[in-house]
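Narrative of accomplishments. A recurring question from our advisory board has been how the design workflow behaves on a single, concrete structure rather than in aggregate. To address it, we present the structure tokens for one chain from the evaluation set, followed by the sequence designed for it. No filtering or post-editing was applied between the two.
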């Protein structure tokens, strides 16, 4: 028993017994590497105005998309769930540029799942012509006739 830590030696049990008995407790324990501070005090605040302006511009761009507008209409703020609904990245938290860009990219990708269903092509083109004229074949001459000539 000399190879066991002194606490286990005092208890007179081998390591296997102690591990098996403490397993349910260890699942609920907090790892040493995890901070016990409240969430809002764990992260650093971004103070660079240029970075904050750039981030706000990216957020505003995402909020102007049709997907975001549909999301606002369909899901009231009180009913939003973090794992299920898209969350706007926190522009005030200090992130590396790469981390921020990845978060914005992921957020925008999730917003696309809220895009309205695409509408069938109807109406008129830019010159006032019907869309049907765009679908008419330009020339029905076979390709072989063009190459032989």
């Amino acid at each position: 028993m000399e190879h066991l830590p002194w606490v286990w030696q005092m208890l007179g049990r081998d390591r296997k017994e102690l591990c098996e008995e403490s397993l349910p407790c260890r699942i609920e324990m907090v790892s040493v590497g995890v901070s016990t501070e409240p969430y809002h005090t764990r992260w650093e605040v971004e103070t660079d105005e240029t970075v904050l302006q750039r981030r706000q511009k990216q957020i505003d761009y995402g909020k102007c998309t049709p997907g975001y507008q549909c999301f606002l209409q369909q899901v009231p703020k009180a009913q939003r769930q973090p794992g299920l609904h898209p969350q706007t990245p926190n522009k005030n938290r200090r992130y590396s540029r790469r981390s921020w860009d990845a978060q914005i990219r992921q957020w925008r990708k999730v917003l696309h799942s809220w895009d309205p269903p695409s509408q069938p092509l109807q109406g008129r083109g830019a010159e006032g012509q019907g869309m049907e004229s765009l679908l008419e074949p330009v020339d029905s001459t076979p390709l072989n006739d063009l190459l032989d000539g």
